[in-house]
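Most newcomers find our protein records easier to grasp once they have seen one. A learned vocabulary of local backbone shapes supplies the integers on the structure line. An example says more than a description, so a record of this kind follows:
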Amino acid sequence: MMILEKQLGTFALRETKQMPGMLDWFGWCTWDAFYTAVNPQGIKDGLMSFSQGGAPARFLLIDDGWQDTVNEFQKEGESFIEGSQFGGRLASIKENNKFRRIENEAKSKAPSDLKEFISDIKRTFDLKYVYVWHALHGYWGGLVPNTLGTKSYDPKLRYPQTPGYLAYLRDISMESMEKYGIGVIDPDKISQFYDDLHSYLASQNVDGVKVDVQNILETISAGLGGRVSLTRQFQQALERSIAANFKDNGIICCMGQSTDSIYHSKQSAISRASDDYYPEDPTTQAQHVAAVAFNSIFLGEVVVPDWDMFYSLHDSAEFHAVARAVGGCAVYVSDKPGQHDFKILQRLVLPDGSVLRAKYPGRPSRDCLFTDPVVDGKSLFKIWNLNKCTGVVGIFNCQGSWPSTKKAVQMAASTELSGQVSPADVEYFEEVSGKLWTGDCAVFSFKTGAVSRLPMEGSLNVALKVLECDVFTVSPIKVYNEAIEFAAIGLMNMYNSGGALESVESLGGKIHVKGRGAGCFGAYSNTKPKSCSINLKDEAFNFNGEHNLLTITIPATVNRWDIAICY
């Protein structure tokens, strides 16, 4: 990819891009919570329930439902036609009446405008980032032609041509847009449209956008220069506007998986790597995890793959949560207000609302590259990543996801499969092993709580039923002060335990471990310490000599810590 980047000059690699700050904070997306019925009070209720449960959201994505749209195919009093929702078109760049009080509505509960609402929830709930959703052409059906709020962008009605796409996969959104048409913005006016929209949003205290429906360009490009040229024009205009209006490179790309989009991604740092999360379809849950991980092999070179949101209160919630913990991605859910599993959320989210994001895009281990973990009936699936001081491996039973029938899942649900997890599953382990490494690793299973000492090529047996998973922290055992063999594991109450660690070093005859977050700190040690302290205050500790496991409780009042271990 480095060679291709240099030769083409049209895209940039992930590591050269500015990472949006929202990646490191827990988020909430309104889509599956409200769909297009999203409203200010519902958002406040949701943010309050997260805060009260101890998993405060610091990133909010207001999805579809906030914009000023019209839909000539949905008339009051008439029966709803499935798919007609994709015939809606954008009437102006401003928010709709749910988020803006109109004149002569003094008694309305709506905020005076979007800015008042966003400023209020940022102040009340300590939100750090608020993004809003829009489509590449404004809305699903584009812009309304010949209306006051859109005529300066000269939209023209065009009907997408999708025979190749629909021959492969029936998709109601694509079928509907082909039927109802799209008000396509004049390509010569697209820069003006994006700058007008984004500058307005920035003036309303919005920090970034999720830009959806990016795949539509290839279906409307005939007569507009072809798909490659049109994509380049739109992508360049979009990224110029983001850079001019949002200081934090605030964009999440969605439905932008075509090579046209990927090879024109100069600045955009986050892009969806899968189909949507479908909470009501049990056959897609495991398939979603496998698809994102495999797609990340390629996409992860150019962007941070976005795994989409999930429900924390769901049969497959932990399956998705562990995948996000090892995915190196944004962590956000789409729970309905009051419907949360805080036991799961608190394994992902620290009390301050931050998350323990791994270093790289999560990708399949080498021995999984040429297996099919959703249909072969025999393979478990592993995703590896690195933290600053440790490796991490998630292992999943993804079987029974295809064909797309509930019966397939029910038939496979009782099937238990066996596999192995090894420190060798973690690529680039030399980044954390260092010169003091013994060649062995401490391997911590979140599911069982067991810590094992393994050589690099050693392995542990794992047995999982469908939609079961486990996550293993892999920490290099190093020699300190010539005799102490030690490996920090991290916060054993978090899925990505090692993500809590900032550094491990020997100073003044003591081993110092710095990190963040509250809970149970664990480490492998070949001998019992004399004393332990947290931020210079002596603390009690437990040492299990049989398993060489040292544990220390970090109080909930402590955010960042320096644990000093004296032998």
About this structure: The mean pLDDT is 95.
